[in-house]
From TrEMBL:
Specifically methylates guanosine-37 in various tRNAs. This is tRNA (guanine-N(1)-)-methyltransferase. It comes from Nocardiopsis mwathae. It catalyses: guanosine(37) in tRNA + S-adenosyl-L-methionine = N(1)-methylguanosine(37) in tRNA + S-adenosyl-L-homocysteine + H(+). It is an enzyme of class 2 (transferase). CDD domains: TrmD-like. It is found in: Cytoplasm.
Length: 271
């Protein structure tokens, strides 16, 4: 997969040299290219913003540098110009913005299947809206939000999305089962968060690992993990359970959830 990131702060993306993503880049699984938006400005101050039409606070990022940047970046597709007669490669443009569609694991799964993503990191009050409209004439465009809060710019959100998508690529994680058992993964875990996890030693500062995890009984371990996942989801993300199809819950599941809801309600009253 190729990922292009256009920003006024390329140094912000130093973490992409680290850990699993850094290894994926070094091995060629992931091709990340950083572009400084100011490279496409033409005044001595490298201006990328101006006052908004209609008045109001803040500044808006100018369309001219963004248009030139997207033209230049997308003119260099993965693998060059492609074979004669083949359709030119087209990226998917991602615009991180608090006004976008909430970014979920389902989005990450879908984007991980794309061969080429371009992230446009806005700042100030955002990017002139004509940029997205113009880009949509030649590539798919998505506005995505990582949460109901406002950041100083799109760089943090882009880091989140790039890491979420990249770890799904074949060869990035050492154990593919780690992805399948993630919170919000598809299948059984789509409407559940992951429960508690433990490692050695079996006793630490007087806290013991649950005995079932030491029992060697894989069926009992699986049941315990699902129960704990149900309890944690009921406590932290009851909204996920509301969207879970009823047929995915057996009698034992419903008993666990009822007990968890009663306990959560008692704790809320105690507060």
């Amino acid at each position: 997969m190729r990922i292009d990131i256009i920003t006024i702060f390329p140094d912000y993306f130093g973490p992409l040299e680290l850990s699993l993503i850094g290894k994926a880049r070094a091995s060629g699984i992931l091709d990340v290219r950083l572009h400084d938006l100011r490279s496409w400005t033409h005044d001595r101050h490298n201006t990328v913003d101006d006052t908004p039409y209609g008045g109001g606070p803040g500044m808006v990022m100018k369309p001219e540098p963004w248009g030139e940047a997207l033209d230049a970046v997308t003119a260099d597709p993965p693998g060059g110009a492609g074979q004669a007669g083949a359709a030119p490669a087209v990226p998917r443009l991602i615009l991180p913005t608090p006004s976008g569609v909430p970014f979920t694991q389902a989005h990450a799964d879908r984007l991980a299947a794309e061969p080429w993503l371009v992230f446009a990191c806005g700042r100030y009050e955002g990017i002139d809206s004509r940029v997205a409209r113009d880009a949509a004439q030649r590539m798919p465009v998505e506005e995505l939000s990582i949460g109901d809060y406002v950041l100083a710019g799109g760089e943090s959100a882009t880091l989140v999305m790039v890491e979420t998508v990249s770890r799904l690529l074949p060869g990035v994680l050492g154990n593919r089962d780690s992805v399948d058992q993630d919170s919000f993964a598809t299948g059984e875990m789509q409407h559940l968060v992951e429960g508690p996890v433990y490692t050695k030693p079996a006793v630490w500062r007087g806290h013991e690992v649950p005995p079932v995890l030491l029992s060697g009984n894989h069926g009992a371990v699986d049941r315990w993990r699902r129960d704990e996942s149900l309890r944690k989801t009921a406590r932290n993300r009851p909204d996920l359970l509301e969207r879970m199809p009823a047929e995915r819950l057996d009698r034992h599941d419903r008993e666990v959830l009822e007990e968890a809801r009663v306990q959560t309600g008692a704790e809320s009253m105690a507060d």
